[in-house]
Amino acid sequence: MVTAATPLLLAATGELVVERAGVLNLGVEGMMLVGAVAGFTTALATGSHTLALFAAALAGAGLAALFAFLALQLLANQVASGLALTVLGTGLSALAGASRVGIPVERLPRLALPGLSDLPVVGPLLFAHDVLVYGAFAMVPATAWFLGRTRAGMVLRACGENAEAAHALGHPVRRVRWLAVLFGGVMAGLAGAYLSLAYTPMWAEEMTAGRGWIALALVVFAAWRPGRLLLGALLFGGVGILQLHAQGLGLVALPSQILSMLPYLATVMVLVAIATVPGRRRFAAPACLGEPFLPSR
Hints:
The protein has 297 residues and is mainly alpha-helical. It has helices at residues 2-20, 28-46, 49-73, 78-96, 122-126, 131-149, 151-161, 163-168, 173-199, 211-221, 226-249, 256-260, 262-276, and strands at 111-112, 128-129.
């Protein structure tokens, strides 16, 4: 469950920051795929996991910069730009990794935590993972602290709630949104790298298998609050891993295709529940989400 939740948590944390800044980037799936193939290719060529993670983050940020240029500079429709980004990332990753499909690569090394990894039962489950797992879970409180306790985080939230007012107060709305989008790209790239370097250390076309879309739904499930991302990621990750174990053990007499639908069915059910729950104003998105901003001066 922890490993299945990690790519969701990385991608969703980045997207949450992007959306709190007032930008809707639907290209998470494409950025994850580009990050996955960049990280895998670099690890295969150099044998360095550090360079591989750097390449994945850079690839995700590069694709995010393209989206930011379209959506923030040219004021293109954010929904259309994000969908185009997913299509571009899917095709680009398939082209870049066409000759490397199925080739294994050395897995990200697991990091033992002194005094914790040796604990019975709990140690191997929670404290015997790689750096991306620890980083993903550490980013949740770090993001909550940044958004709720720092001046920069409050400025970012102001840009998402009322861009015109933030601009009138002298805050660089466009620059803040650029930085948020780039951060989201870095996180999505690392999420993709986790899939190709740790979760299944090899490259396969479209290996994200819709996790980028689940990450987008996870932000809504968390009501744009970092603290709820962890619960949602574990929930969706648990559903995804449950269907794999159920198929492997033959516990459910259902076609494998139906079991594979479980994570996405759970996503739809959660979104329906949020839309119908009383007092759903608590789940309201940032007021300026998806709205273009053109500085008046």
